Amino acid sequence: MADPTSILSPPLNNNDQLPSQSPITTISAAIPILLLVATWFFSVKRSKLRAPPPPGPRGLPIVGYIPFLAGDNPLHRKFADLAGQYGPIFKIWFANQMFVVVSSPDLTKEVLLRGGQNEPIFSTRGFPAAAGVCTYGGTDVLSLPMGHDWKSMRKLLVRETLSNPALDLCFPLRRRELVRSLREVISNELVGKPVGVYELTYKIVSNATLGMLWGGEGDQFCFEELRVVSQEVMEINSRPNVSDMFPMLARFDLQGILKEATAVAQRLDWVFSSVIERRLEGGKLKKQGEGEKRLKDMLQILLEIREDSENAGSSSLASMTHLKAILQDIATGGTENISNVIEWALSELLMNDRVMKNVKRELDEIVGLDSLVEDQHLKNLNYLEAVVKETCRLHLNLFPRLSTAPSTLGGYAIPKGSMVIINAWAIHRDPQFWDEPSEFRPERFLNQDNDKRPFDLMGNNSNFQFIPFGSGQRICAGANLAGKLLRYVLASLLHSFDWKQPEGAEKIEFSDYYKIFIKKKKPLMAVPTLRLSSQDLFA
């Protein structure tokens, strides 16, 4: 019987040979396969090592999560709700702009400390396109990225202009403007009538601030124009802008916001130029003698520094544009926020009779009804200080930061160009760190033992549970001035007048909305009545 294999293949004769392959041919054929296997192996390994993106809600194509943010729930509250769902760090898309929202002290510490000089990943503030137009091309302290220019400008603003010695020299100027504003409440027959607390407070704070800027001298029109323009700057910067969400469309300025911002910026520059020219033409730039102490406004301080730097060939204040940018930071940076906090404080006090009585008792003991509040009184008003802190805890937020390089945060990948939002509102109301967090209770800031470092407005606490003005190298540059004005204006309003709700008014509304700052949805109306012993104290 034939072998079955013989049927499948013909027999080999002696002359037939199997084809041979050289080793080189075999290796050449194997190399592509080995490369494919190696590429696959390392890509899998790299994907396992690469940090994942933060979790977050899905959005829609093109517009991202924007449609889901509509409604009565403001952004800070919506972000707190999303943190409850996704954790203390999550991402959210506004069109093609990625936002990373942080809602825990540990992650906040990581953001703020990595915003320092050694690793300035989160050191740049995230501002709308219109803000660059209104800040001399982003040359002000708030807008500049970390670097030599920022350090020079911040030194001028914080150490020279807003330092405690400089602000002490300016106290007579802000006192004069505050007393003048309080006197107008009486002369305009507003006593005993309902007044808009925010409008009144804004006028007082802006007058005090502008008085410190250039002493309130010269054309009153410049004074009033700057106050109006400052409000317009904040209003423009708070508008949702397509150019911010779709940078490729910024050149078209579809909403006309940049055009409007340019017009406002020109008016702002006209005011500063007019005041500076008047000061220089008037020959008022005179140096004081050694050991001589006299009244100086902030413009005088900056002009003297600029003259010194020019004489020394230094670039510490290189141009008049830099000087104007510093003035702009002071004029517009804090007035609205301070006024906003005072409105919230008075709202809380009117709803908490016990706290109001404690504040008045302290004012009576420290100041007395025969005197106005003076600078030397403020350091002894501990309960008032606690009221200010508690108001800031409940009603302040922080500006976003911009990631300037790829990084990680909380174990998640943060791409370059991402906006990082610290939801201070949520941190300040977290029941893990605050007992009965929604309750207005200033006593929580008295007799504290927080790692032997009490909470203060400057963010000087190690646990990052209280950061009303931020912390680290890029803490709000005007925090020192804001703290002084908050205490002084609020103390003066509470000491000079008794306040009550208008007769028949509904219970004070505490609903809010997000518009750069956390603002009251329904403005507070209140009735002032004279509290001091005599109107002559305001003379």
Automatic annotation (TrEMBL):
The entry's keywords: Heme, Iron, Metal-binding, Monooxygenase, Oxidoreductase
Official protein name in the record: Cytochrome P450
Family: Belongs to the cytochrome P450 family.
Residues annotated as binding heme: 476
Source organism (scientific name): Linum tenue
Cofactor(s) needed for function: heme
Source organism, top-level taxon: Eukaryota
One MF term in the entry's GO annotations: oxidoreductase activity, acting on paired donors, with incorporation or reduction of molecular oxygen
PROSITE patterns, per database record: CYTOCHROME_P450
Pfam family, any one: p450
